[in-house]
């Protein structure tokens, strides 16, 4: 469990074919952030660098939901993808 802006979120590991990993268009993905459940559903096959990128991507959705930041889904996805690719570089740069 983790908390963003006073909202408790859970991470639940599910089988890679779980219906919890279904997008609104019916396709299956590797992770889904569900505002109704306050939960991030993650495929149990994720590992290593890909797992870190997917988690960073989903955390962007958690932050947007928790901070009432609304944008078109395409824009939110682009932001989440950018953070998943470059977020660790920012953190390491700030540490220096």
Explain what you see.
Helices cover 44% and strands 21% of the residues. The protein contains two helices and four strands. A four-stranded mixed beta sheet has the order 1-2-4-3, covered by helices on one side. α1 packs across α2 (73-95). The model has no long low-confidence stretch (mean pLDDT 95).
Keywords:
96 residues, alpha+beta, four-stranded mixed beta sheet
Outline of this structure?
The chain is 44% helix and 21% strand. The protein has 96 residues and is an alpha+beta fold. It has a 4-stranded mixed beta sheet, with helices on one face.
- The percent range for helix content is 40-55%
CA-atom Rg in angstroms? 13 Å
Q: Tally the beta strands.
A: 4
Could you report the average pLDDT, rounded to the nearest whole number? Answer: 95
Show unreliable segments: none
Largest sheet: 4 strands, mixed
Estimate the strand proportion: 15-25%
As laid out across the biggest beta sheet, the strand order is: 1-2-4-3
Class of secondary structure makeup: alpha+beta
Count of helical regions: 2
Instruction: Measure the end-to-end span.
Output: 29 Å
Order of helices and strands: EEEEHH
Name the overall outline: globular
């Amino acid at each position: 469990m983790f908390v963003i802006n006073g909202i408790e979120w859970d991470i639940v590991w599910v089988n890679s074919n779980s219906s919890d990993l279904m997008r609104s268009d019916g396709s299956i993905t590797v992770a889904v952030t569900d505002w109704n459940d306050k939960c991030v559903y993650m495929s149990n096959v994720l590992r290593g660098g890909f797992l870190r990128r997917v988690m960073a991507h989903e955390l962007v959705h958690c932050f947007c939901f928790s901070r009432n930041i609304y944008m078109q889904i395409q824009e939110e996805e682009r932001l989440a993808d950018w953070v998943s690719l470059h977020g660790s570089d920012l953190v390491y740069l700030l540490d220096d």
